[in-house]
Amino acid sequence: MTNTSLAPIAGAEVKNAAFWGHDGKALASFYATALGWTLTQTYGDSAAMISDGTTSYVFYTAEDFQAPNWPEDELVLHLDLGFDDVQAAEQNLLAAGATKPDHQPGGSHWTVLLDPSGQPFCISSNDAW
């Protein structure tokens, strides 16, 4: 439901998003590799931040983290990553610790992978966007 009586707030930008997994620092390292971003800060053994210089992601360790049982479980958040060379990206992401589930609902439009904490994300061609 959209509230049409509110005016948009000028100048709003997403600057940071937070994610939880079994190992926040390892997850930060994975996504830094996946996105070509830089690990910019660590917070002890439990969290790390990556950034491209404009947007940051923080990855936290959650001791009781449970990956969704996808596709049965609904997802709280989902990332779609675009690449110039999707096949090379898939190979690199798998080598970096992603896995490829059997369930692939995207056909030739996108590929679902699971990050090292078991959370699904999709990859597709930059041209698809």
UniProtKB/TrEMBL annotation:
PROSITE patterns attached to this UniProt entry: VOC
Domain VOC: residue ranges: 13-126
InterPro entries per the UniProt record, alphabetical: Glyas_Bleomycin-R_OHBP_Dase (IPR029068), Glyoxalase_6 (IPR041581), VOC_core (IPR037523)
Pfam short name (any one): Glyoxalase_6
UniProt-recorded name of the protein: VOC family protein
